[in-house]
Amino acid sequence: MEEREILKVKRLTAQWLEHLEMENYSPCTIRDYAKGLRDFSRYLQAEDVGELASVTGETMYRYQLHVYQETYKGKRLNLQTQRGRLVAVRSFFRYLLRRGRVLSDPSSGLELPRPKKGLPRGIMTAREVNKILAQPDLDTPMGLRDRAMLETFYSTGARTSELQNLTVHDADLGRGELRIEEGKGRRGRVVPLGEVAAHYVGRYLERGRPTLAGARPDAEGWLFLSRYGEKLGGGGVNLRIRAYLRQAGIVKRVTAHGFRHTCATHMLRGGAGIRHIQALLGHRSLETTQLYTRVEMGDLKREHRRTHPREQSRGV
Question: Which of 184, 199, 203, 207 is catalytic?
Fold first, then answer.
């Protein structure tokens, strides 16, 4: 690629990313797309493809093969990463086609890899949940924060990023509601905040957060603060959870996302409808939510063995 074409690609990339911002894509998605396009641009330069207009369906096929064969620390990229690389390029060319910058979309024939949708991991039993919830020291501001945080995770099924972005105005304790403004894909929603969770959030706001906010006079209105009065970091959340798991003697690997999976699974087990769980978790597709019905298959099999007449004698 000549210098002039490289500058052109950079300019078009900047316009595309600005378009994604205008379309309200999440910052995380925009960063991933930008990285995916940088990888593609490096590939074009290495393959001496002179300009975007020279990219063909065959070029895209060779690039997909390149991504498939690429390794990181001696291992091939997982299917989700491969798919993300290709989706970024496809989005870019679709944008160029709509803007009349290319005559055809060379990525239109791409067949994206289909990552296997594994079962949710880190699902706890009700007993395990109770044990970990009992670990924070409620005589300290950090303990009050952690109990309120864990109760919120379990009650609402919120993602870590969603919990980090909550402000003090998002929790309506009187109505028992939590407003999540920036979910995945920036789709906001209002979810129930259970009575127990609301109680602990209230205690934290009254006796814990003022102390944490006092560590930094210019503290913003984030609901959950770090020990330094700053916005809570996602890595710190999982560190606290791991510490409480050890204290509780739970050897199961559980992350903050495990509370989300546990919330959905326990509600399904209690008789909640799949569409209600979809609304709670903020899933765009019902297919995503239906993963939890697969988790419940183990319970169904046990109940089937216990109650079905043909299973009582095991005779043939």
Answer: 184
159 is catalytic: yes
* DSSP E strand stretches across the chain: 71-72, 75-76, 171-172, 177-180, 189-192
Contact partners, residue 119, CB within 8 Å, separation at least 6? 291, 294, 295
Kindly report the CATH number that applies to the domain delimited by 126-302.
1.10.443.10
| Domain-wise residue ranges, the chain | 3-98, 126-302
- Residue 305 a catalytic site member: no
Is CATH 3.60.21 what the domain over 3-98 is classified as, yes or no?
Answer: no
The catalytic residue among 33, 95, 204, 292 is: 292
Residue 90 to residue 186: CA distance in whole angstroms: 21
Per-residue pLDDT of the chain (316 residues; tens, 9 = 90+): 667 777 888 899 999 999 998 887 878 789 999 999 999 999 998 888 878 888 999 999 999 999 999 888 888 888 889 999 999 999 999 999 999 988 899 999 888 887 666 556 678 999 999 999 999 999 999 999 999 999 999 999 998 989 998 999 999 999 999 998 765 555 678 888 999 999 999 999 999 999 999 867 666 799 999 998 888 887 889 899 999 999 999 988 888 888 988 988 888 888 888 888 888 888 877 777 777 666 665 665 665 566 656 456 554 4
Specify whether 42 is catalytic.
Answer: no
276 belongs to the catalytic site: no
In the residue annotation, 66 being an active-site residue is answered as no
| 184 a catalytic residue | yes
SS3 at position 173: coil
Q: pTM higher than 0.85, yes or no?
A: no
Of 85, 260, 261, 266, which one is the catalytic site residue? 260
